[in-house]
Amino acid sequence: MNGLVLVYAALAGLAIGSFLNVCVYRLPAGLSVVTPRSRCPRCERSIRWYENIPVASYIALRGRCRGCGGRISLQYPLVELATGAIWVAMVARFGPTLAALSGAVFLTLLLGIALTDAREYIIPDEFSVGGLLLGLAFAALPGGMPFLCAAAGAAVGFGALYLVAVAGQWLLRKEAMGGGDIKMMAMVGAFVGPWGALLTIFLGALLGTLIFGPITLFTKRLVPFGIFLALGAAVTHGWGDELIRWYWGLLSGAG
């Protein structure tokens, strides 16, 4: 593959990662992601364009605001680097194709969801509902997932988690699942199809139980389930077909 294509993918990912930082900070608070311009949260000084170059500006400023000298969160360059890595990985895997663009957008949305759920226990509709529309739009284009498969995936993802939420509320006598998680699964299903949606829910529940379950027992903290659904969806996107084939192979062997 032409190395220049990967460079373009990296630059696009870094720029989108910079915008993702804005979304993660502003969307849970109901703020516009367009205005006002980015500014220091301490001194309110507007950030100049040359101070907002992904990763490079953080290094040049040594992680501090030029105005007040306050520390800039390490989250900003890390999210930019992670998003850049996502876009490079998708182009390296699929080439400069619709599948690469779809995968990069999907994984970027999952990263945004994981961050907002971890910070605020919120999954903004801009990520879930907006992502659902993007997933269906990709499926409507030639070369993408069949549109009916994407629509079925969205329905299965939404319906399956909704049933889990209803059953959990009946058993626990309190809300067991947030509406954001349910809408998120509609988005996930649009990108990975019905079997992928079910695998995502299984993996998310497994990871949530193993990682956060012990913490919940001792602290009574709510489980930010969106994080684990995002992890499960990322695994499903990367290796879902292999996992499903392996599982069916076990069943057929046992029969």
Which spans have pLDDT < 50 for at least 5 consecutive residues? none
Radius of gyration, Cα only, in angstroms? 20 Å
Series of secondary-structure elements, N-terminal to C-terminal? HHHHHHHHH
Separation, N- and C-terminal Cα atoms: 44 Å
Share in β-strands: under 5%
> Which descriptor suits the 3D outline?
globular
Structural description of this entry:
- The structure is a single chain.
- The protein has helices at residues 3-26, 56-60, 75-94, 98-120, 125-140, 147-172, 179-211, 213-219, 225-254.
- The longest helix is centred in the C-terminal third of the chain and has 33 residues, at 179-211.
- Helix 1 (3-26) crosses helix 3, helix 1 (3-26) runs parallel beside helix 4 (98-120) and helix 4 (98-120) packs across helix 9.
- With 255 residues, it is an all-alpha fold.
Keywords:
0% strand, 72% helix, single chain
Describe how the helices and strands are arranged.
Blueprint: H1 3-26, H2 56-60, H3 75-94, H4 98-120, H5 125-140, H6 147-172, H7 179-211, H8 213-219, H9 225-254
